[in-house]
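Hi support team,

I submitted a single chain yesterday and got back a structure, but I'm not sure I'm reading the token output correctly. Could someone confirm the output below corresponds to the sequence I sent? I've pasted both exactly as they appear in my results page.

Thanks,
R.
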Amino acid sequence: MSDYISSGEQEIQAMLQTLGLQRLDELADGLPEAVRLKDEQWHLPQGISEFEAMEKIRAMAAHNRRYAQIYRGAGAYRHYIPSALSHLASRSEFVTAYTPYQAEMSQGLLQTIFEYQTMICELTGLDVSNASVYDGATAAAEAMLMCVDSRRRRVLVPQTLHPQILRVMQTYGEARGLQLVVLECSDGVLREEVLRPYLDDQTACLVVQQPNYYGLIEDPQPLFARCAEQKIRTVLLVNPIAAMILPSAAEVGAQIAAGEGQPLGMPLSFGGPYLGFMACEKSLMRRLPGRIVGQSTDQKGQRAYVLTLQAREQHIRREKASSSICSNQALCALRAAIYCSLMGTEGLTQVASQCVDHAHYLADQLQRKTRLKLKYDAEFFHEFVTVSSTSSFLILKHLEDHEILGGLPLNDHEILWCATEMNRREQIDHLVELIGEVTA
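Hi R., thanks for writing in. Yes, this is the structure output for that exact sequence:
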């Protein structure tokens, strides 16, 4: 209970004295001034009753919109989730489980994490997976940190990287004095001639997203091969559904794979919680952040699960830990493992194939029957960008009026569309018909 009782004035003063500080606000001196709230900026209202609070919440909820169809991705994707998944994942022994600091007391939870790690290794083709991190953007930033050292401080990322992932990587990099170089991609994918000037002993790693932010399929193998010649580490950011039909991270020469696990059985859910998955080759195992669950035997010779490499973790090494991650996202990882088990290899491959079929059908119909045209002449998985002389926002507003969430507007004339197995052909035909009404 002491965790929930606020500190008294004497305790606060004792803490400040121990830290060598005069005021509480000095604790935030490391934060940029632009993001620090002043007392006068809080504007907290007076307390209200539970009845009044519920009225306010209902009024706010009334503004929510439900869409019959969704054609927006850009990092969070609508896939079919088997009904058995939520039933199994909501069992009390899973929902109430916390980070397994005492491995011997958490055998069931450790086994689910071990199974999850095994599936991620199979998906990426790499040797070792961790017990997940917060989300895909965090996983990308952590993968970057695995690659840098005291001499190699430059990180290469293509212009086609998801902008939110790039922002997180920049935040991590600025705090550690890294140099992030954004490489130009004039035709939507990264080319070797753009990469070539940076292939030297100052570059730590190249990070490539597959498929990239615009849905295009990159060709990372020759890029990674050139990096290997200069001992530059390679990171592939993976869409786990696309990975079922594209070459694996290991096959294209990636030493580290990372990505967002949301497509593996997690609903859109207003943006989270999700999980970031990571895997790497064995030589980089000790650089991999987060927890790793291994299989061993107990004193009776029976199978047992243990946390491995614990000495590097923050609950033991604290400030010397390889990462400040304080959760293994166990429930989200469990959902991913259950989803993969329910779908199986054949089911996941069918999902990926239907994503390709439906997205290409949508792109074909838009070009045939509306004034929208594809911006890039390149292969794509389940997302693509269209260009039109009609305002993007006019098109999307017309779709919203018919309970359809259209693609993501990149600007006033470009839209990033997405189609998955959830978008049936007759629905796509209806979408195209509606778009034709405003682009004719």
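A quick pointer for reading it: The chain is about 35% helix and 15% strand. Let us know if anything else looks off.

Best,
Support desk
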